Records
---
Amino acid sequence: MEEEPVRTAVDRKGRAPHTPSMTIRHFTNKKGWKSIRSQVDWTFRASAPPPAHNPFGAYFTTLAHDAPKLAARLGIPKSKLECLFEFADAGDLEPIQGGRGAYIVYSRADYVVRRDRQLWEGETRGR
Amino acid sequence: MGGEDLFLHGPVLTDDRIFILRALKALWPRGVIEDALSDEGPLPLAKAVAQAPAWEEVLAFRTSSAQKTCEKFGVVPSLGPDFLHLLFGPDGLTVVVHEAVGKTRSFVVDELFEGLANHRLRSNRLPLVA
């Protein structure tokens, strides 16, 4: 019998390569959440936040909301962890260069998630 | 996601870790580091140099005050010069910087990566550059 992969533990530590079967997450603040959830299809806008940044794009993670030291590892303020979108991966997101590519992926342009891939959205504390 | 991921090819061996920790301590004498993959608290760099913990992901701060700021608020803009995120992978070293220009970024590019490449040369290991 084939062994079932332990996805939660792998996701939380973020040491496994990103695979198409994973849940993809986007953390944002309340303002961003309201804007994205107002549409039937979620659209995540590509951007290049200052000061130091990776390539222009829409960024996502495979790490869950309860991963250790999440804000530090994602390089964001805790206020950006307020709300969360989760959706099924379609295998079309690229890992970023380097070690964080194990748990951070991105799209070079705005990224649309249609309803059939949407899994969960809401305030992170309710997850 | 925040920060810019700078990458240096080549596996990070134990003596590389010690070199990196010593370089960090020279930059931030009152600095602290912590394991990014656990809920454990910070360790002063002075102790870390002696212990050389085999953590896969390390959060490094200029002071314990900067570490507390990160713990409470996450990576806020004012933390940029005082914070580095290091990932030790089988393929290389990743250092996430949070400032476009400045002393901390210059340290990573000009001292840490350059110094590590020279350290590897002195150890008779092939130079592996990005």
---
Amino acid sequence: MKGEKMLNLMGQVDESLIEEAMTAQPTRRKLGRTVWAVAIAAVLVLSLTVGAAAAGAFGPIGDLFAPLFGASESQAAIIERLGQPIGVSDTQGGVTVTAEAAINDGKNLVVLYSVTKDDGSALVSEGTERFDQLAWNAGMDGDTLHFAFSQREPNDPLGDFDYTPGDSTARIIQKFTAEAGMPDRFTGYLSDLEYWCDGTDGYTEVHRIASGGEKKDDFWWFDFPIVPAKEAVTIQAQDAELHVSPLALEAQFTVQGRKELANQQVLALRLKDGRVLDYSSVTDDNGIRSPMSRAQYDEQQDTTLFTLGGVFDEVIPLEEMDCVIFNGTAYPVK
Amino acid sequence: MEDQEIVELYWNRSEDAIFATSVKYGAYLRTVANHILHNEADAEECVNDTYMKAWESIPPNRPRRFLAYLGSITRNLSLNRLKQRAVQKRGGGELELLISEVEEFSLSVPGPESQAEEAAVLKIINEYLRSQPQPKRRIFLKRYWSMMGVREIAEEYGMTESKVSSILYRMRNELKRQLEQEEIFL
């Protein structure tokens, strides 16, 4: 059946469904307490861990990532090129989490997990009112990987999810950035799987799905080799090194002495379709910097290395990028 | 005024019927038309034509769900106008995108189609949508019935565009599988 005919046919779906859709009241995501709760959780997690197209069309990894990280053919081709299947599962408290696949560009790593209850029931009951999001904790062994930051919700390094109440499986992705080069193994965990609802009083309601246990040994642990991949462009800016890949944008620059990051550093990626992904660093009244950045002080050199940027919300082919803008200068992506 | 009272006005051939319809549902219908046409003047014309179609079709029809009945007329009129514009090369890009999206599942149903076969497809779509959690089926219908843009849906639901796209992508694939499983060979 041709698409035009199907589009006409869609006009004849059951009137009760049409009425429901036409009169639906949108459920807007609330800002305020929810966002700050995430931000504070993010800071806590960091402080604890930084020290320490059609189904089947894209290939196995492209299909897995498509709903969360890009569903166009060019995106799927990159995912297949940079991706690796994993298939490592861990079960705790009747919930199985499987590290399904990962993609990396040599510096940034995105891991896709699936989460299911062993009894096949929904993780969150269908019809749960004011459902806002899934939340979880994650951590790594060692300090070669950090949580990557997201431009979409710059204060939320927790990753992204694909889930609607009533579904039996959730898919979540967690983004990491390597300190230097990509390590050859990933050893990390998830814990404290929760869902959050917008509370009627303006506060976030937190509901536990499964903890994975109280002790670290009882979390969902994953250990798998990382298949080396590389696809990035390095641009030498006047006073910084800019790294851009289909997964992420990063600026690194060094200043003399032990310094705080200046209040505003402009970093953005302009795409050829005119969109601008803004990773400029701004500190708000509460002292929360968005997007977050890292500062590493080198005592011997008496210098501070700043890193800012983030992992994208979807794969972006390099040929779709126009330029990186850093502190007022545009650097073409070639 | 209750819907059935307005329908009664149509049956009594009272011109107050159109006024009552415009007061109660004019804004809704303009929204439906505007989502498809993105042109207020064209949308207004389609809404006015909707009132005329309702006047011509009630009686003999006695719609039980008046809003959905009106909405379907507005949608069809707006879609036809959009197709005319596409032929005239005026703003057909969004229509082509929508058609390419529904083709992801519609092409699994061979054609040409008889009325009975179309009814079978429609039954599967209805059953599939009823089996879905409410937010997902609303998003699906916002896209493929109301023909809202992904960005508009994302703004309305407070989601990211990629999240809305991913929900639609998964639903198209699920519906494709449902249609294939039912083996409608036309």
---
Amino acid sequence: MKRFASLLLLGLLLVPAAQSHAAPSPWAQSVVQIDINRHNYNYFQPWSRRVAASQKFGIVVGPRQIVTTANWLYNHTLLRLQKGGRGQWHTGRITWIDYHANLALLTVDENEFWEGLSPVTLADEIPNQGPAELVRWNSGRLEVRKLEINRFQIRKGQLTFVDMLHLELDSEIDSVGRAEAITVDDKVIALTISQARNKCIAIPSFFIKSVLAAQASGDYRGMGFFNFFWQQSENPGTLDYLSLDGEKRGVIITRIPKLPGDENTLKPRDILLEIDGFQIDIVGDYADPDYGPLMLENLATRKHWAGDEIPMRIWRDGREQTLVYKLPKADFDKELIPTALYDVPPEYVMAGGLVFQPMTVPYLKSWGADWQRRAPVRLIHYKGQPPTEDRPRLVVLSTVLPDPYNIGYQSYRFLVVDQINGYRISRIEELQEAFANPEGAYHVIEFEQGEPVERIILDAARLDSATQRVMLRYGLTEASVINDPFPQK
Amino acid sequence: MKKLLSLLLLATTLVQAVPPEESVIQIVVFSQQPDWDEPWNNRPVSRSSGTGFAIEGNRIMTNAHVVKWAKQILVRRYQDPQPFQARVAYIGHDCDLAILEVDEPAFFDYLEPLPLGELPKVRSEVVTYGYPAGGEQISYTSGVVSRIELQNYTHPGNRRLLAAQTDAAINPGNSGGPVIQDGKVVGVAFQGIPGLENTGFFIAPPVFRHFLTDVEDGHYDGFPQAGIRMAPLQNPAQRSFLGVPPSFEGARIDTLYSDSAKEHLQKDDVLLKVGDYPVGLDGSILFQGNQLHAGLAFSSAQNGESVPLLLWRQGRQVEVNLPVFVNKDDAAAGNLYELPRYYVYAGMVFTPLTKNYLSTLGQNWSATADTELLYELFYRRKSDPENTRTEAVMLASILAHPVNANMRIRGRVMVDRINGVRIDRLEDVVRAFEDAEENYHVIDFEGSYGFETLNRGQAEATTRSILNTYGIVQDRRL
């Protein structure tokens, strides 16, 4: 009995020690859950709206300030945040967002929410390899799992066409990519954006930190990018052909898409030798002082924002020359077919059952995940074309809602519009003026050469009544949705 | 009346004198298809079988696809084990028809030509004769004519001509066999649709008669096209805009493609009649009781003939004779049945961009090919004619050798320029290399593929040895 009493005593003594070991992780005071309800638009029926819901994570980075990735925040209708992995949800709001950088700052107005929360430290440096931990809430429990840092890589941002630095980690964890914090020791080194098989991709902390600092000081001018294509110089004959002296080095500029406002003077067949003081090798890498060989695209986002001037050395006309490259701003509106649209409903104009829409990548994605194979080749072809002064964007007749008014035209769809009533059409808002000025008693709609039909005619006097009838019959609340101006984020 | 009865009886007696099956020929073909990816090579010899039938003039009619790429053609008569060698006298890939001849005259002894009939009526009964599925005994299947309309001919892949659909079974091996009604040939069996039950198609009499007329001069030209695209004129506003009187029908001419059409027609002409056929609002004509696309009336003419048209143009009726021609440019988008053209230089293999070349990507080629190549081949001619090349040229592959080992590009890219010469056809590639004087050849590619360079002296010195290494006898087939 004495022995039993001793064991009990030992047990009692041990319990507080075990409780002490299971004390809440400090990350529990910094990692929050975010619940998002948003519109999920159907570009084939742009007037219809479905809802989607997602959950992701954020980390406290300052007073009343939470940072997360921008993914899934677009088109949101309700944003709620929860701390501690359980309990009350608090309505939140976005204070700042940049889709190219894929970062957003959120806040909650209720003071109660912030009680007990404390900011994390974002790491200034990230080890090139070694273990890391992923932190997230999972069914009310703080889940801390191991990963392995694999490498740094340059790849297109998740929501943009801009190439930028990402961190790749090996991970056996399911469903990663919802802005989970990746930590080493007591610092956050990255926020996850996606996972494919056992590779997890994340935005590095030093990038997040530099964007937030620039945003706080008012210096953030948006992401810049290199608006040129280049090819590697692994074929030594090509550098000989271009008469490069000395060791083989640099890459060759092949194409510079025309971009409004881009006055840089690079030319095809310039050899790009040096950017921002870093030598470029024949495969297009530079030696990053912190992270080793990285692709030259990183030099557009490494400590630079749009509008910054970056010194370059090139080989042209048989000698080295120096020039200054002014980083153009990443801007979807400058693309012929915009890569993305955020926080705006799909635009359309329905006239007499004819549905016109801007041609955008979100529209093309209506063909599904394999849209680049399944969408009409005629439309996909435009994706690789640059905008021109007289054709900055494209509008398509996407479908026809059958009505006696448009009889004979019901099968026409996916046709690129050239002119309406003599007005050259590039942007959806131009349809309003064009339809306001019929050619006599008719609206004359002309399509691009080579489309399955080149011209159709509508009765101008009956257009409005037909539009009203089609709206009623097909359940449209608006005959048109035009966002003005183009959203800039 | 008595005389009429006698004539009918005679006719019946005549067509029943020799059962049709005795005029049906079994055809065995040993063929070898070229390899468009390595255009100097051929694929393995394969054996296939089809059907044909005797026609006037000691000839055999069959499908073009039965004898395509044939190295040897053997023909056998009904219930006769003796094979005879045959050869292709004429082949019309656009209409999937061919005429064979047999040099051994004895083959036609006791072989009665089958009489050719007219377009059968829908719902009338027909019997197909053939050797389906490689069987040695003739097979008969009967059914009705289900419908008659313009169909896509899958052998060329880019032509729509008149065809009849029947529920009589038409299976592989039936191809080229006669479809008989009242003892006469009213069709040539030629294709089915995988997955659809009880649907086979046969080539209709106007098509095989056109083919036979075409070859009377000893040369096959093909089926001409109007070189226009019509659009329906069903919308009242469209009709009113063009001032077409309410009592008129007709279809609007939307686009002009051929030089002949551009010379004789105008956009927004309304096509009221083609020949003797009034054109409906949807662009159709009533042809022997069948509502068919008016394109039929244009393809009924022979190459270079004129088709009389009645048009509504700017408020009045106008008569125009439109010369129609076979569209050779169409070959770019259809299957080709000539040996692939190529040129090999310093291990770089150049060949024209064709549908056959793309098909080397695999069965699902249209889903896996670079969309820019698809655009170039199938769309640019219509959407951007000013910048369309006569023949786009691919750098198909590179035969590895130290002289080209450092090139980044390893093939499957379209060529833009060589040594500053815009490549408009394969011959330009040869000229650009052979006329070069600089130390380096410079090859620019389309799209985002950049350019490559090659030391000219080394390239010229190695071309022959590369050909030897890879067993290529000729560096070119132009």
